[in-house]
Each structure stands twice: as C-alpha cells, then as structure tokens.
Amino acid sequence: MIKIPMSVAAAGLLRALLARAKVNRDRILLTDLQSTEWQSLTFVGERHRFHFRIAGPNSSEVVRNLISGLEDAEFSIPGHIVADIAMASQLGMNQDGSVSVDLEALTIAE
After folding, report:
1. Of 37, 31, 28, 109, which is closest to residue 67 (Cα–Cα)?
2. Which of 16, 7, 19, 31 is nearest to 108 (CA)?
3. Structure pTM?
4. How many other C-beta atoms lie within 10 A of the C-beta of residue 101?
5. Long-range residue pairs from 92-97, CB within 8 A, at least 24 positions apart, any chain
6. Integer Cα distance of 9 and 39 in angstroms
7. Does an H or E element contain 17, and which?
8. Of all helices (H) and strands (E), which one includes residue 88?
9. What is the pLDDT of residues 67-98, one digit of tens each?
10. At 56, is the pLDDT very low, low, confident or very high (cuts 50, 70, 90)?
C-alpha cells in the first residue's frame, strides 16, 4: 500500500467522505490527492482535489451516496471548516465496472 502524504485537514475530510459513501473502505481507492495552500485577506486554508475510484457492484450507487447533498453537508474536522465542496467531475464507468470521480474542496483553518 502506498501512503499519500496529506495535511490534517485533508485527512479529516477524507475520513468524512469515506463515511458518507456507506460501504466498506476497501471499495473506495484514493488514486490521487492534491492539496495546495490557499489564503484570502482574512482566511488561511487549503484547496483539495480528491481522485477516487469506486469498485465492485453498485459502484454508481456508492457515488450517489458520496455526492448526494454534498454541498450542504456538515463536516467535523477539528480546527478546520469546509467552506466549499463539490464534485469536480465524474469520469464515468471504467472497463472493470468501477467508477472514477473527482471532488474539490476548500478547507479553512479556524
């Protein structure tokens, strides 16, 4: 297993997203994560882009669980607020029956 280095905010958001999917963790593969520092005049945070591949039967249903109501969801990440989150792209069904999806988020330090 390759471990992708990530910030506290990215790790907390990843845990929350995996819980939203409502399936065993081994069905969802994090294929890439990009986090970059972000700031405005009054806030400091990070922009994140998660690349997931969801395998197994009913993978489209798992994606629906993951993204349904995502923009209005409340996330509990100590020391951070999820200011914005959305599906960036759903790349569709792969040959093996898995589904690829990208999510983008902005977290702000409290």
Report:
1. 28
2. 7
3. 0.88
4. 21
5. 93/59, 93/60, 94/53, 96/55, 97/55, 97/56, 97/57, 97/59
6. 15
7. helix 8-21
8. strand 80-93
9. 999 999 999 999 999 999 999 986 677 778 88
10. confident
- Distance CA(25)–CA(62), nearest Å, equals 11
CA–CA gap between residue 73 and residue 49 (Å, rounded): 17
Residue that is written with structure tokens 């995502």 in the block: 70
Q: What tokens were used for 66?
A: 């993951």
Task: Record the tokens describing residue 55, joined without a space.
Answer: 């395998």
Q: Domains in the chain, start-ordered, CATH in brackets?
A: 8-109 (3.30.2000.30)
